[in-house]
Amino acid sequence: MKIEKARTVLTCPGRNFVTVVIETEDGVRGVGDATLNGRELAVASYLDDHVLPLLIGLDARSIEDIWHSLYKGAYWRRGPVTMTAIGAIDMALWDIKGKSLDTPVFNLLGGRARDGVTVYGHANGATIDESVEAVGRYVEAGYKAVRVQSGLPGLTQPYGVGRGDLCYEPAEIDRPILETFDSGPYLRGVPKLFEAVRAAIGWDVDLLHDAHHRLNPREAAQLGVALEPYQLFWLEDPVPAELQESLRLIRQHTVTPIAIGEVFNTLYDCQQLISEQLIDYIRMTVAHSGGLTHLQRIAHFAELYHVRTACHGPTDLSPINLAACLHFQTAIHNFGIQEYMRHPELATEVFDVGYWLEDGMLHLDERPGLGVTFNEERAADYPYCRAYLPVARRGDGGVHSW
Ligand code: GCO
Ligand code: MG
User: What are the residue numbers of the active site?
Assistant: First the structure.
């Protein structure tokens, strides 16, 4: 099963996506998601100019060998661009393997370990009242878990509050938009938000919150303690993710569960966090973590330490990545929860998927491979358009982590 062709396809059906397409000499076509929000062209160049030419003539069945040859053979290891490129190729190779054996990828990863993949939805609003109402809509729609973000008194440009109802991730054309953040009003407001949500919806729904890497460890511990009465499913990304020691400080002070990892790329980014049981959920996703081959290794390692998976699933990754996350988490034992928000309507013209939402879970049908049909002709109708994530500054004008 020699690889005959490999290319990247850039498209913008409502958002930018980078897709790797690999074809074998016997006509099997696999696809992988190589999208890195705001830095798409860097990954596309890494693939087109350096990595994809190396694949031609290799046996598409040798996934483990190809993975190591790309990871170790580059000498310059790790990092988001490198690992996203490897992740997309790895996804496409698993897709090819599934299609050539006429079976869904989850069967190759160990088979079904659960009926469906429980997801959390994204409720948000400009005020606490609006956010409480939004949570109610998700509960009515059958979601078992809801992430809640909100505008708060003194904090009018919060992270995670969308302009539309379904998608909140910003991607601004030309220049990043500026948001402000100050920890004072944030730390005072978030406990009030969850007090109001619990009062309105009770205790039957799991609640989550994303601090988006904005606090220092002391502030994060303070927030974790303040949120304990509302029993969150997790507090996500409480501190910037680079310094693993920070998570120990948080852990020493609060029993609020902690999730982190959407910006991690390899096992080495979370080895200490997992083996010292400093976190509860690892948020790494297939596309940004070297693909199924590497994420599977991380999940097996995490299982030893009571850490569960919770793949990052924003709409700034394509439906191919979400499908890969679903196959992966249908099969592994230590699954926690999957992030879910609907992709823009236009994206469904380009990516035809084999998953659907029912009873707060995403379900996979029995399509072979990853189960996503990528329509390259439709993709060409939506040309790539440079876009940026926002940046954040404090009230005094100083730069803060976005
Ligand atoms: C999440 C994330 C995203 C990121 C986005 C950056 O939990 O879903 O924090 O919203 O901000 O993926 O591109
Ligand atoms: Mg997040």
Answer: 159, 212
